[in-house]
Amino acid sequence: MKIIVYGPGDCSNCSRLKEKAQNVVDENGFDADVEKEGDMAKLAEKGIMSTPGFEIDGEMVFSGSNPPEDQLQELIEDRL
Fold it and tell me: Residue 28: what are its φ and ψ, rounded to 5°?
């Protein structure tokens, strides 16, 4: 599984979301890579109007929010 958090490099909300996603992956032993993508052209290409954007295996799951870890876990488990 590949998880990508989209947001500019200076976006603390985006960095927190990446950290939370990584925590969920680590704590649950999910086989997933978590990356952060800050290229504004890629954000535009994905149609992200509000950061952070959250993608799992090429599917944009949400953007513009930073849900708690339990909700992230549910989103990831739903796609296993």
Answer: -105, 0
